[in-house]
Structure formats: structure tokens, C-alpha cells
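User: Run a structure prediction on this.
Assistant: Running it now.
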Amino acid sequence: MEIYIYITYSDWCNDTPSETLDGTVNFLRNGIVSIDTLCDHKPFRQILSFDKIFAIVYKLPSGFLTYSKEINIYENFNSWVNSNPEESLEGYICEDECSDKHISFITTDGYKQIISLSSIFSITYER
């Protein structure tokens, strides 16, 4: 599957990926996210630092959300205090795939998004 890597928050907002990989995404123990790829017929596992990238995004092969909830992304303290999110999405937070470095969610259009918490102030979501 195609996996899109976004280096900055701005790249993600503008939907301009910095890199596209062909592989599979895995959620390992301790909140580690890896990408399995093939290079010259050899399998490689890649672990990218969420301190250096903003997001990993890929289309899920099948399935639809039967329900969605509001997800709000606040880039800075002022937008959070004033409840004025820079981004507001509909989807589902995958709490068991989140860590102190990133949050994972599925949007209503079937994309799984894993975004870094180090480049934004807060994410709030309906429970």
C-alpha cells in the first residue's frame, strides 16, 4: 500500500507528502510505529522519529467507519484556550495505538493518520 510521509504540519495541512513509500505499517510494543518495505528484494523495517516527521498517512484497504466523532487539532496554546481549532475532522481515535509522541486516528474517508504531538499543542476528541 502507498504510505505518505509528511515532514511538517504545513505539508500535512496542504496535503503535500515529502515522501511516498510502498509497504505496510505496524504498531509495535511501547508505542513504536514501523513501516515494512522491500528494497532490492530484501525486506527492511523502518522506524521513523516522530520528533523529525509530522505524520504517516495511508489508505486502509477496506472497511468503513460506522460512526465518527469530532477530532480537533490545535496548533498553539491560544487556539486551544479559545476553542478555535486549526483543523477539525470527523473520525475515530485509535487509543490503543497512541503514545506520548503520537496519536492515531481513522478519518471518515478511510485514511489512517498517525501524527506527531511534538509539532502541535493539543488534540481533543469527542468520546
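The radius of gyration is 15 Å.
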